[in-house]
Each structure stands twice: as C-alpha cells, then as structure tokens.
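To fix ideas, we quote verbatim one protein's residues and fold tokens.
>
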Amino acid sequence: MIDRAHHIYRVARDGGPAHVIESGGEWRELDGELFGRYAAGAPVDPAGLGLLAPLEPSKIVAVGLNYRDHAAEMNKPLPAEPLIFLKPSTAVV
C-alpha cells in the first residue's frame, strides 16, 4: 500500500532507467503506468540507485541573453533578436 504522501524518482538501475516510490522511508519499484494507475512493487535498496532527471526530455531549446541583467553580467549588448540554441537531452542531470 502506498501512503498518500510519497515521492516518485526516476533512477538508474542495473536494467536501465526505472521509476521507484519512496514512502515513509521504504523504497519500492513502481508497478504500472507513471501517469496512470500504479502501485508499490517489490522492495528496492536505495543504496544501489543513481538519481536521474525526472523525465527524459526529447530536446531542449534555450534562449541566450534574454534578460537585461544577464547581458550586463556578460558585458554584452542586448541582441536585436533572441539568440536561440539547442542543447542535447543528455545535458539534463
């Protein structure tokens, strides 16, 4: 049974990325669908888990020098148009 107050983490395990539930200091596998119905599965030792980003992004679009203060910190003039650039999904830790 999952307590109403619980945390869900995306973690690295031996088999690859997985979701686990922490409730009351007890860690268990997440059985079911993350955005649907799920339940607490088998117990998990948190010592063997590596914390991952909550979700795996498909792409990251960023805007550079988009704030006056940021441009001033960088000693750069404000651009006439936004500077848009992409980052790989692996940039999320």
Remarks:
- The chain has a mean pLDDT of 87.
- The chain has two domains: 7-51, 60-91.
- The two ends are 30 Å apart (CA to CA).
- The CA atoms of residues 58 and 89 lie 6 Å apart.
